[in-house]
Amino acid sequence: MPMRLHLGSPLAFAKGLLDSIFTRHPPSPAMATSSTAPPKLSALFNLPPEIFLLILSYLRPGDLLKFALTTYPQLQVKLNLGYLSIRTFHRLVLPPPNIALNWPLPMELTDQILGYLLDPSDVIAFCFTHRAVYLQYMGNETLDRETVAGLCSVTRLPVDGGLRALRNWTSGGR
Fold it and tell me: 19 vs 107, which has greater pLDDT?
């Protein structure tokens, strides 16, 4: 007899799944009452596009940005996102300059404005292209080697191979 999962409402399931992804804790018992392993991130990307976009629509812009940074190669396929330009890659990976980058709006108002964007790819593109907004959401967090390697894998490199050293660094060699 197949094992049945009690998922509750789809929204509760999606929230529990995303909470477990971002906090790196196993899902709560209310999310799935079974002895099976918790759902993996790949299960999220195997969802139908409508459900996947519905789940992403419940993320706040800052959480969506962090999710996009860690899963950009998969999101590129699922949401049909473009390759990162070398300039955008540098904006995301390199430490910020010593000058103060000011965003003219309070972050609460920026959250409201980004909430009106219906497509998560628009929110991701906006945050990736405006470094001041990106830094406001990211704070002092730095990207780990795996995240940089994932971003590097979807970056359009110059024809002359000018970033060969960066690719070597992200693969573990120096």
Answer: 107
